[in-house]
Amino acid sequence: MRVLITGAAGFLGSHLCDRFLREGHTVVGMDNLITGNTRNIAHLAGNDHFTFIKYNVSNHIFVDGNLDAVLHFASPASPIDYLKFPIQTLKVGSLGTHNALGLALAKNAKFLLASTSEIYGDPLEHPQRESYFGNVNTIGPRGCYDEAKRFSEALTMAYHRQHNLATYIVRIFNTYGPRMRLDDGRVVPNFIGQALRGQPLTVYGDGSQTRSFQYCDDLIEGVYRLLHSDFHEPVNIGTQEEMSMVEFARRVNEITGNSAGIIFKEDLRIKDDPQTRRPDTTRAQQVLGWEPQVSLKDGLPRTIDYFRNVVNAT
Ligand code: UDP
What we know:
Mean pLDDT: 97
Helix content: 25-40%
CATH superfamily of the largest domain: NAD(P)-binding Rossmann-like Domain
Number of strands: 13
CATH architecture of the largest domain: 3-Layer(aba) Sandwich
Structural class: alpha/beta
Bound molecules: uridine-5'-diphosphate
CATH class of the largest domain: Alpha Beta
Strand content: 15-25%
CATH topology of the largest domain: Rossmann fold
Order of helices and strands: EHEEEHHEHEEHEEEHEEHEHH
Number of helices: 9
């Protein structure tokens, strides 16, 4: 296959490039680098099967030659990033998704959308099944991301229904691993960075809010399987390993041997911060035969090793 991956220089986009190349496919990677970084794909320089184009996909996308699949992963994805770039986030989720879908249609290619657990908002149903419609505050600090992704899903289904395009929607739950940005503000890099510097971990609010963290390789496997399936409705990909942020902070301090403890902090994001989050992954299991393979016990030390090198280099 020859595939286009938007957001190729991001955390997940770059792992996706690696996976497709490893499977013998040819990859065109696109990224405007507002939150991505070419460091994540530097190891692909000189690979004949990989091309990188620095481009903002919110503008009309030109790609020469055939394409078999378009995977749309471009978007700021961490709360501090989309608070900083709210308009770009809305544009890439609307105009960018439209352009990526239009390109897929023109090339007769499959289209896969990176959607998110954020479309469920602060959920009133727990765990979250794909059938849940969500509880999103359109005008809150997360609205720009949540609504952009909800629009992306609606547009993707419209292309599927009106143009019969082979489309796929993955709803990605909290994912962590090497190549996350140390300063992206999300809880995993924040806690690990603080722990490695011997600082107290900043728990926002009372820390009772929960998340379920999946290792990036599991997510990529789910995406790869979904693209090769004939299932066109959204599929949650995430783990059942749910924990409170206080509990997660303790885990990080324990593994890193950080004795500085935790401090409680208010944060702008606390408004509309989802109080619980855990996917129901029955669908992924039934449709894709997918289950997460890497527990936090194994994935966290690998991620800490990665961040140790980053912290030492800064
Ligand atoms: N969080 C925290 N301390 C931090 C960063 C985040 O307690 O230094 C909390 C945040 O309030 C949220 C959870 O960790 O409840 C996950 O936040 P993250 O930004 O990783 O992603 P989200 O799942 O909210 O998109």
